[in-house]
Fold this protein.
Amino acid sequence: MTGTELMAAIGFFLMLMGTIAGVWRRVENRVDSAKKEAMETANSASLKADLVSAQLQEHRIHVAQEYVSKAGNRELMDQVMDAISAVRQSVDGLSGRVDRILENQAKGSTRPRA
């Protein structure tokens, strides 16, 4: 090999290595930017998940404070139904009393008043 051929071969290999290094650098930059973008997206998703978790907790507290459970509702309905039954019994008792008062007035009205 002559000096010219040797220099051409060395130049070719240097050019080839430079091209490979340039391509490798571009790939690395894209990988780094993809990693950075993925980390930003993950951080954003994490913040959104934290926000949604806090809102869900607030909603659970609101529901627990504002709404009645099935057992509580059933207990309340039993109390209301017992009160209605007591009122019905009182009304039934009053109708008997009113009947007696009217009967007594009818008996008393046949007597002459002085």
Q: What stands out?
A: The chain has a mean pLDDT of 90. The two ends are 161 Å apart (CA to CA). The helical segments are 3-66, 70-109.
